[in-house]
TrEMBL record:
Name of the protein: Epoxide hydrolase 4
Homology family: Belongs to the AB hydrolase superfamily. Epoxide hydrolase family.
The keyword Membrane appears for this protein: yes
Signal peptide coordinates: none
Superkingdom, natural source: Eukaryota
Gene Ontology MF annotations: epoxide hydrolase activity
Lineage of source species: Eukaryota, Metazoa, Chordata, Craniata, Vertebrata
Pfam families xref list: Abhydrolase_1 (PF00561)
AB hydrolase-1 domain span: 92-337
Amino acid sequence: QVVECLPRKLAAVRSLLFWALVYGYCGLCAAVHLLKLLWSIGRGPARTFRRAAREQPPACLSDPSLGTHCYVRIKDSGLRFHYVAAGERGKPLMLLLHGFPEFWYSWRHQLREFKSEYRVVALDLRGYGETDAPIHRENYKLDCLITDIKDILDSLGYSKCVLIGHDWGGMIAWLIAICYPEMVMKLIAINFPHPNVFTEYILRHPVQLFKSSFYYFFQIPRLPEFMFSINDFQALKHLFTSQSTGIGHRGCRLTTEDLEAYVYVFSQPGALSGPINHYRSIFSCLPLKHHMVNTPTLLLWGEKDAFMEVEMAEVTKIYVKNYFRLTILTEASHWLQQDQPDIVNKLIWTFLKEETKKKE
């Protein structure tokens, strides 16, 4: 009996240590950000709470060369999803899933590029942009996000697609390929490893734990949304433009209008809660029970990613039973499809056109 009880006790201890790490690090992150807030208020309270009025969207968000704005209501969930579609109906579907803090516009270079041969759809994920945002965090569990993509495909009249995901959208893309392999003709993940690789790495490597601190900070109610909004959304601007986390000096920098498009979308009332809620259930959903990928897969990675260790890209290949190609771009940032759009598009074209044979 003692031998039989030992595995259960070890599992309980591991679980206790895991949640102690999660909540302990949450507390540490909260303390750091509270100190940053106090420092900002001390330097200039008026500037800290200043926010510019943004009533009209920037013109780039209605650029007709990017495609048509469309909406679809999902029958089961009742949620209305917004997406931008380019290319003729009836062509093979290419579905694009953005990361945080992004929205459909992060795929502007790919909407223009691939519409010649695909029906390209750049989705606003649940809680983002013009897509409906349920209030409760339980509505953002990974199961719900996976079901969203399946329902979107059905609503668009497709049974399968080329699936491309960046950052958090990459996480969802991996999960779709794992749970619904028949839906994915080819999988392209950008700067996000296989979910199990990420889970193991974040727990065993202090550097990645530090780089992923925002995952823990986002577990705290309300404070993350507030911290993103102070100083007229300076934290949001900083992510895309700073030397440490932004698009690299050799990249295709965001224009002033591009940056304003991001700030406009996330400055709308309540617009930050949905995106941040995506992260508030992640620790109860990982690791995965089923994890092998049987779809031809391309993993693209910006070596200068400030949030993800590049070693995770190499480890990912053990989870892909089918054809797998990894390309790491030097001098490229986390925002890869915006940072190096010409190179990324060329690599995607090559992958789409080549015959991929399953591993023996």
